[in-house]
Amino acid sequence: MSSPSAAPHTFPAPIGGVPFNQDFAPSILFAFLYAIITIIAFYRLARSSSRCLMFIGTLAFVFERIVIYGLRAHQAHDPSERASDSLTVYWQMTYSIGYVSILADIITILRSFLVNSTYPPKDVPVYSRNDGSDSSLLVGNAADTSYISLDRPQDDQPRARFWFRRICGFLALSTWISIILGTVSGLHYVKAETNANQVSLVQSLRSVSSDQHTTMCYTPSDAVQKIIQICMHLAGIYPARLRRSAALILFIIATLLNVVSVYRLVVMRLQTPALVSTGPSSLNDPASKATFYVFQAAPEWIAAAILVSINVRQTYGTGMWGDFRSTDKKS
To answer: Where are the domains of the chain?
Structure first.
């Protein structure tokens, strides 16, 4: 009696697929688009009125994306490089953790934004003021409807500052969880191609990493709506007023990053029998490639472009370094 044949070995399909000929043009396009962002970033850094280090992680991400899309174009043009283990590991790592750099930056900006709101207008610290600008840019005035009013006098609120710093500090630390999980998942990806024991590990790490991203990418929007509520619950006080337009920018960037996370959650369940397979679950077919560029490549670029294009220093009152203190400076 013959035994049933064993099921063929499959492993998680590569995010972004293996670069084929049709990937050459979009790879060149995105490399060019990211190069444009670097010009804007250097312009911001060159001007004293907009110079700050709040988007340095995003700038590093932009440089990395120029490199990765250049390599992707090379791999698409040279078939002999398509099965490269080193490039495969690199793709799976960077597509998992690259955009966390943008997330970390908006958490840092968010911290300055919220901490500034807890100072009385005349006491906003020097490191948070804008060069030569009026302090109303940070705390607003009663006639300015672009601010979110919480109907409380603009007195000093040290307890709110304490909790804003702790919450944002925790969120910043949590980004490293995603980075570590994404890195380990990428390093083990090539092993999963031939080792069934590695498949479940890679699948689990991918899932946990993306779930972490999805949860955290809502945080900047919650900063204006829900983190304030948390601080009200913990400290029993209201923060001062927040600029609605500035909060909206963070919300838009967070939403774009969340699109990437949701895309990853959808496609990571797919399995493929071979890295260069073009089957319906391989993420190498034309429809899957188009989906990758629309739901991961494009949102990443738009998020980075928005963050670098705005004057972070003036919009959020970050100064050069932002709010780097764990406690208030003793007088």
So the answer is: 11-316
pTM as predicted: 0.81
Locus of tokens 């071979």? 274
Instruction: Check if the beta carbon of residue 33 is closer than 8 Å to that of residue 114.
Output: no
In angstroms, the CA 191 to CA 49 distance is 50
Task: Give the whole-angstrom CA distance, residue 37 versus residue 32.
Answer: 9
For residue 252, give every residue at least 6 positions away whose Cβ sits within 8 Å of its Cβ, in sequence order, or none.
306
The list of the chain residues with pLDDT below 50 reads 1-3, 126-153, 218-240
Residue that the structure tokens 């600008």 belong to: 133
Which one-letter amino acid corresponds to residue 229?
Answer: Q
Q: pLDDT tens for residues 167-226? A: 888 888 888 888 888 888 888 888 877 777 777 767 666 666 555 555 555 443 333 334
CA distance 197 to 193: 10
Structure tokens at 316: 């959020």
3-state SS assignment for residue 50: coil
The answer to whether the CB of 146 falls within 8 A of the CB of 245 is yes
CA angle 244, 249, 254 (to 5 degrees): 125
- CATH classification of 11-316, choosing from 1.10.3470, 1.20.1070, 2.60.40, 3.40.50? 1.20.1070
Q: Are 217 and 258 in contact (CB under 8 A)?
A: yes
CA distance 131 to 60: 26
304 in Cβ contact with 58 (< 8 Å): yes
Using CA atoms, how far apart are residues 82 and 85, in angstroms rounded to an integer? Answer: 9
